[in-house]
Amino acid sequence: xxxxxxxxxxxxxxxxxxxxxxxxxxxxxxxxxxxxxxxxxxxxxxxxxxxxxxxxxxxxxxxxxxxxxxxxxxxxxxxxxxxxxxxxxxxxxxxxxxxxxxxxxxxxxxxxxxxxxxxxxxxxxxxxxxxxxxxxxxxxxxxxxxxxxxxxxxxxxxxxxxxxxxxxxxxxxxxxxxxxxxxxxxxxxxxxxxxxxxxxxxxxxxxxxxxxxxxxxxxxxxxxxxxxxxxxxxxxxxxxxxxxxxxxxxxxxxxxxxxxxxxxxxxxxxxxxxxxxxxxxxxxxxxxxxxxxxxxxxxxxxxxxxxxxxxxxxxxxxxxxxxxxxxxxxxxxxxxxxxxxxxxxxxxxxxxxxxxxxxxxxxxxxxxxxxxxxxxxxxxxxxxxxxxxxxxxxxxxxxxxxxxxxxxxxxxxxxxxxxxxxxxxx
Length: 426
Hints:
This is NADH-quinone oxidoreductase subunit H. InterPro entries: NADH_UbQ_OxRdtase_su1/FPO, NADH_UbQ_OxRdtase_su1_CS. The chain contains 15 helices and 6 strands. By secondary structure, it is mostly helical. It folds into 2 domains: 2-321, no CATH class; 339-383. The strands form 3 sheets. Strands 1-2 form a two-stranded antiparallel sheet. Strands 3-4 form a two-stranded antiparallel ribbon. The chain has a two-stranded antiparallel sheet with strand order 5-6. Helix 6 (157-188) runs antiparallel to helix 9 (210-224) and helix 13 (323-353) packs antiparallel against helix 14 (358-378). The longest helix is centred in the N-terminal third of the chain and has 33 residues, at 19-51. 35% of the residues are buried.
């Protein structure tokens, strides 16, 4: 039993490492994320190309593995253009604000149990806190300041709209994301990431709390601004969003790194809170040595890669949604569903503690869920507007045909002018 306790880190195991071990783990984490961004870019381009019946990167290095290195060198050596109208301090500081919180958020993600590293027994986690999950949420909220400042300091209307979109999107989806964590806290009894992984020894929370997991999966795309929720970078209507005024230089490279690190953090949190963390999946978990030594690092890495592959798969499969659909989903669907689920989980959790209140707890939970869904359906203004628009369309009289030629409401020049070799003769 002592060996099992030694392999599973707790809060008491942190803060006892020598300073040089902490530095070594910090450097290892930095290298993992920095190299992971380069490999993630190649992996995403390669996977999407295979899904679209293309080869993808295949020139720089074997299988195109050096393509990300070539892109990084190119962006580092390109001319750094600084527009004259920008706020110089905030314009240069914004990409850094996007990158640093993502590195800090990953510091509380456990990669494995207690192992022996250079002769010192230490948990494979840089740091853990009694409120580690709240720290992750805080870092995600801080990183959006980089997006907002990048849009505001650029003094461009398109960049400013992209920054405002990002702020509204993060506010909407971070609420639902935080609510999806509440059920995990209720069952784990802690906000520590290492303790949450320890609580999933018997069953993963993705199975036990599947509604919370599904809500988090949706919020993960909204929080990381990935397709289909990449509205802050809507190229169709915002040119390039908040990064319109950033040239393809080192600043642009930092922005891209920040976005990928944000995606990595979302995937790492999903693995930690819902997919058992570094614990081996079934049936590998039946092997006694699966949770000992350095094997857990392999299980964590496999889950992490599969989660990132799922994010890429969604990008290659789904189109971008409209902004009103994005906000309606966050405020009118995810938040009410999360609140109803939390109340149900709390009632069931109370039943587990007090066996005598079983029927009362189950009945209370069912009534709460039905009541919340009824209120949501009653005030679902999106569905009401659709019904009203459909009724108005049926009752509307057919309009008389117009001779004015237009494309999407905008007048276009006559299309029957004579041309000669593509040049109008008029």
